[in-house]
Amino acid sequence: IFEQVLAGKRITITAGPTREEIDPVRYLSNHSSGKMGYALAIAAQELGATVTLISGPVNLLPPAKIKTISVSSAQQMHDAVMQTTHDCDIFIGCAAVADYRVQQKTNQKIKKSDSELTLTFIKNPDILSDVAHLANAPFTLGFAAETQNLREYALGKLQRKKLNMIAANDVSDSTIGFNSEQNALSVFWSKGEKKLDVADKQLLARQLMRLVAQRYTEDTND
Ligand code: C5P
């Protein structure tokens, strides 16, 4: 019965890493492949949702018939999200957004000189939290990549960011998660939790979208 819940719903998904430029030739980024976010976009589309995928730089083809917006920096992702989420029903923050950007990007390449180089970083906006705190916030699902205290940290983020659900994965295990074909997730919401065992990311995405459909129905009928 949860299969029909997402038909016609508008779902925005962020995916991949962000790239924070340091100078015209260098940037700071992370190992996110974007596979989980892209798999979620496909799974949501299979359930009849109208999906907008907002993606950082990845080596994946844009999924067929899914509106895909390519961005590079966290700030650009934030802007793209804010422009598209005012009328979405569900927001899924799957991107590995850089927490910080360099305070002052130089227009010229930084030259080697001293034995030390100091860069000052400032905090990026938290896209997911900003969406979840909107007056007319959509149903929100966030991710938490952790190397320890998975449950405690995930529940902290669920509360602090004001999310409906959070899916946590253990990134200390290199056989799953970042840059791998497989993943395993522990999903938490205010009144419950569910473990999704290690599986191919596309299969896991389908299981997670069904869980989203279920929670979305129950939360919107509360
Ligand atoms: O706090 P932390 O970065 O671990 O939270 C991870 C979750 O928050 C992910 O869902 C990620 O997409 C989202 N996030 C975001 N904007 C940021 C940082 C994280 O949307 N600047």
TrEMBL record:
Cofactor needs: Mg(2+); FMN
Record's catalysed reaction(s): (R)-4'-phosphopantothenate + L-cysteine + CTP = N-[(R)-4-phosphopantothenoyl]-L-cysteine + CMP + diphosphate + H(+); N-[(R)-4-phosphopantothenoyl]-L-cysteine + H(+) = (R)-4'-phosphopantetheine + CO2
Domain DNA/pantothenate metabolism flavoprotein C-terminal positions: 6-214
Region listing for Phosphopantothenate--cysteine ligase, in residue ranges: 11-222
Source species, domain of life: Bacteria
EC number: 4.1.1.36, 6.3.2.5
One GO cellular component, as annotated: phosphopantothenoylcysteine decarboxylase complex
Record pathway: Cofactor biosynthesis; coenzyme A biosynthesis; CoA from (R)-pantothenate: step 3/5; Cofactor biosynthesis; coenzyme A biosynthesis; CoA from (R)-pantothenate: step 2/5
Keyword Chaperone among record annotations: no
Gene Ontology biological process terms in this record: coenzyme A biosynthetic process; pantothenate catabolic process
Keywords: Decarboxylase, Flavoprotein, FMN, Ligase, Lyase, Magnesium, Metal-binding, Multifunctional enzyme
GO molecular function: FMN binding; metal ion binding; phosphopantothenate--cysteine ligase activity; phosphopantothenoylcysteine decarboxylase activity
Residue numbers binding CTP: 93-95, 99, 109, 125-128, 143, 157, 161
Free-text cofactor note: Binds 1 FMN per subunit.
Its job: Catalyzes two steps in the biosynthesis of coenzyme A. In the first step cysteine is conjugated to 4'-phosphopantothenate to form 4-phosphopantothenoylcysteine, in the latter compound is decarboxylated to form 4'-phosphopantotheine.
Similarity-based family: In the C-terminal section; belongs to the PPC synthetase family. In the N-terminal section; belongs to the HFCD (homo-oligomeric flavin containing Cys decarboxylase) superfamily.
Protein name: Coenzyme A biosynthesis bifunctional protein CoaBC
Taxonomic lineage of the native organism: Bacteria, Pseudomonadati, Pseudomonadota, Gammaproteobacteria, Alteromonadales
Gene that this polypeptide is encoded by: coaBC
Full-protein interval shown: 180 to 401 of 401
